[in-house]
Amino acid sequence: MSDGELTAEDVPALTAGAMLYSPSLAPSSLETTVAWLTDRLERDGALRLVHPRTLAPDVGCVAVCVIGSGAALADLPPTGDEFATAVRELEQLSGRPVGAVLPLSAATVSALVPAAVASQLGVPLLDADGMGRTFALIHHTAMHLAGLPVTPLVVAGATGESISLRVPDAWRADALLRAGIDALGGWGALAAYPSTAGEVAAASLPGTVSRLVEAGRVLLGSSDPDTVVARLAAVNGCRRVGRGRIVALEHLSRPTDATIPTHPSSVVVEQVGPDARQLRLELRSEVVAVFSDGSLTAAAPDLITLLDVERGVIAPLDSLWPGDLVDVLVIPAHPVWYSAEALTMVGPASHGIPLDHPRRR
Amino acid sequence: MSRTTAPLALAELVRVDPLARGEVAVLPDPAQRVLRVELAETFDRLARTPAHSLVVLHAEAATGGWSLAAALHVAWERGAAGVVVPRPAMSGASALLARRLGTALVVVDDDAVDVALELAARTAAPESARALRVARCAEELAEQSTVRGVLGVLNAELAPGVVALVAGSSVLAGRAAAVQQREGYREVRMAVNGPGGRAWAALVASLPEAASAVAADVEAHSAEAVLRLARLPLLAAWAQRRLDTSAQAEQERAAFAVLRSSTWPRAAGAGTAHDGQDGAAGGAAGAPAGDEAPRWSTELGWRVEGVNRAVRLERTDLREDDDEPTAELTQLLRAQWGRLRPGWPLVPHDGGWVSWQNTADEPAPAAARRALAGLEHLLADHDLVVGVGAAHRGTPGLVRSVEEARLAVRAGGSDGRATWFEDVGVRAVLARVSAPGVAEVAALALPQLAAARDRLLLAETVAAVLDHGGSLVAASAELGVHRNTVLARTARARELGLALDDPAQRLPLHVACHGLVRAWRATGSG
Q1: Which residues of chain A fall below pLDDT 50?
Q2: Radius of gyration for chain A, computed over Cα atoms and rounded to the nearest angstrom
Q3: How close B66 gets to chain A, by Cα (Å)?
Q4: Nearest to A355 among B70, B89, B93 (CB)
């Protein structure tokens, strides 16, 4: 990645970074998208990656992401025009031509798709996103916190159909879309937050796409866990809570509620070394909290992830076994997520843990 | 604070309902005092828990997974006495954490609110809780029918203290640690009187030192109450055990006699019909048909189907007109035999004891010999000799093997080794020779030998020389003496009238010597 450009050579690092921010995803589910993006960048050349402030303030922008299930995306691959269709339809709804796209969340498959879309549309990709990681719902964004409306939005499916939506209350958007996305085959191409470059510059989290590439390079550059953790600290403030062995996996360890459709589970890690503590990781679709001897040490919106010590790679959550030696890593989210309002949305209480976030105690 | 208002210890509280219905997962400090009960349904409430409270988790605070871990941490921070958690919220990892934090953890199946209410009632009236505990303990003791069971209840009741039943300086049952002087422990002693009010034994409990003088008084009082309750069940169990053992031995003796009388004529008559396949009709009433073992033999715990190899034990000095061995000796032998050869019965029979090994198929000869090894101490301790029969199938086979074992033991020596019927062979005929009868004849027919002081030595020597066809070398090797000694002894025997060289006298002389050796060994004379 030379300054302001994203090339085909950057795709492996971008992918590795995207995986760091989505530990519940199996790497294989990204293969189609990685191939698609690499192919586009090889054919059409490097993509412009720009800070929102470098564009004229009135340039139209939209946030793009995959909505629905990553597994469904792997089963029902995109035909290739879903995202362009969604952006074009949103242009019509908002009446403003799109001059740049940004990832709604720079993580998982949604970190790769916006680059492919920007390349398809021939517009620059903004080095910014709405989440700085990934959250469950589409209004869990810095733009929403800053007052930008999430709608009108368009979801286009591999079936050739699309849904457009306009809601006065942002939190209704996900509820209304869920049934439609099921009918589209489990996933859809989302274009939302029609706005200007000036609005995006003020409301989004800058630098998050280039940060993914840097983090990815760290992960690909070394398999020594200590080196990886030290270098990640410089890139995204990552810290190690502890190193230990997984001693128990507890499934359905607490009652589920209807708001987030994933099963709660727990992973118990006994720390190794003289000051050994018991680390309890609470899982939803991601690790939402870490308790150290019962004391809440880190919680969403912190990004909590596990590094497989023996192999020096991020351990996907669906491949954990008792006996694995892991580093429990915590990457702080953007400061905007630790305000009282943001914590209500994405803090521990939103995952059924009614405790104060460690950063607010 | 008086004894009646001294707060309950956790160890006391977990012994009464509602916690007695639950499960104690972790109890690091049983002496921990419980001053109050706190029903915590939110973490805000939990964070305000006063010290020495027993926290009952409920609702939001008991949702499982992280909630118990977080509750344990808060309880530890607040110095709570312990945490009570509904079972759905419990996990193995949480028990580990509780152990690490040193926080007591009890799992309950009842509704948490009910549990908290009941616990509050207990802690508000400690003396009534203690009375409940004693009542519950009395119920448990009443259910015990063995000494071991009674001591088990006491040890569970007074944990972490330990209890033993002691007579003099030896521990009869329970945990020996109770009689050792240990740092931080004190002793509570309760005499147990036997029938007639005579001191028989004592219950000794070693309890951890209490936190205060009042607590020490309370604990000693409640421990004494429990120990006192245990005295009667203990005596009953002890008496029952003694009765049971004697009755069981007597029953088995009678049963074996019936088994033998119903089968023996056939087994003996079978002669060449190996394995009892003679097909003769059964004799006595209730006798088994064919090889089938009678049903009551299994009720006694005997196994006779398959291949049996009998073992007979006798006292070395057993005489043919001796009574049955005393019940005490039988009881002692049965206990020791049971330890050495688990699963082998030991039945008093015909002045000695009979045991047998039962296997599905005939074991290899080496394995059979191995099975009889390691009995030397037992034999030496009780001055016993052992004969082993051959292996035969089924009930008739067992009876036959018992008879063979009896012949083997009679034909064998008294050197502390087992004599095998297979090794004895036809020499078993000699076992049928009545030793006292031979001795009576010898007194008349060989008066000089019978009067000699070294008569046993001479008889042994002559028997050995004749056993080896007149070879002095072979006889000296068997007797472990020099050839010249054998020569001198045979010369002396000739002087005393033993005509070794007369072919007409050799057979009766040979038989007589074997009989005399047995007779004189048994009487100890010579």
Answers
A1: 2, 258-261
A2: 20
A3: 7
A4: B70
Q: Are strands A98-103 and A60-68 parallel, antiparallel or unpaired?
A: parallel
Chain A: closest CA distance from residue B86 (Å): 13
Rounded Cα gap, residues B471 and B461, in angstroms: 11
Residues A308, B393: Cα–Cα separation, whole Å: 65
Q: In Å, how far are B413, B433, B435, B458 from B410, measured between CA atoms?
A: 8, 10, 10, 20
- Contact by Cβ (8 Å): B166, B172: yes
Interchain proximity B66–A248, CB inside 8 Å: no
Of B43, B65, B93, the CB nearest to A355: B43
Tell me the C-alpha distance between A286 and A303, whole Å. 9
A353:B66 CB<8 A: yes
pTM of structure: 0.62
DSSP assignment of B378-425, as one string?
HHHHHTEEEEEEEEEEHHHHHHHHHHHHHHHHHHS-SSSS-EEHHHHG
Residue A234 to residue A228: CA distance in whole angstroms: 10
Size of interface A-B (CB pairs under 8 A): 70
Q: Could B70 and A250 be called an inter-chain contact, meaning their C-beta atoms sit closer than 8 Å?
A: no
Shortest distance between the Cα of A278 and any Cα of chain B, in A, equals 7
A295 CB within 8 Å of a chain B CB: yes
Contact call for A293 and B67, based on CB within 8 A? no
Work out the burial of residue A114: count CB atoms within 10 Å of its CB; fewer than 13 is exposed, 13-18 middle, 19 or more buried: buried
What residues of chain A lie within 8 A of the CB of B72, using their CB? Answer: 294
Beta carbons of B96 and A355 less than 8 Å apart: no
Nearest CA in chain B to A276: B100
Task: Show the beta-strand stretches assigned E in chain A.
Answer: 5-6, 47-50, 60-68, 98-103, 125-126, 128-129, 153-156, 162-165, 187-196, 205-206, 239-251, 265-271, 278-283, 287-292, 295-308, 313-314, 325-331
Whether the link from the prior residue into A152 is cis, omega within 30° of 0, is yes
State the Cα–Cα distance between residues B307 and B391, nearest whole angstrom.
6
b or e along A336-358 (b: 16 or more beta carbons within 10 Å of the residue's beta carbon)? Answer: bbbeeebbebbbbbbbbbbbebb
Q: Is the peptide bond before B265 cis (omega within 30 degrees of 0)?
A: no
pLDDT in tens, chain B (526 residues): 555 578 888 888 888 888 888 888 888 887 788 888 989 888 888 888 888 999 999 887 888 778 888 999 999 988 888 999 998 888 888 888 998 888 999 999 989 899 999 999 888 888 888 888 888 888 888 888 888 888 999 888 887 788 988 877 667 778 888 888 888 888 888 888 876 677 778 889 888 877 667 667 777 788 888 888 888 888 888 777 767 777 777 888 888 888 888 776 654 444 333 443 333 333 334 444 455 666 666 667 677 888 999 999 988 777 666 667 777 778 778 878 877 887 788 888 888 899 998 888 888 888 888 877 878 888 887 788 889 999 998 888 898 999 899 888 887 766 667 888 888 888 778 777 777 788 888 878 888 888 888 888 899 999 899 888 888 899 999 889 999 999 999 999 988 888 888 888 888 888 888 888 878 877 765 4
Query: In B, which residues are within 8 Å of A355 by CB distance?
Result: 43, 70
Nearest-by-Cβ selection for B66 from A247, A277, A289: A289
Chain A contact probe: residue of B44, B66, B101 with most A CBs at under 10 A: B66
Tell me which chain B residue has its CA closest to the CA of residue A290.
Answer: B66
The Cα A105–Cα A271 span in angstroms is 32
Nearest CB to B66 within list A248, A266, A270: A266
- A271 shares contact with chain B (CB less than 8 Å): no
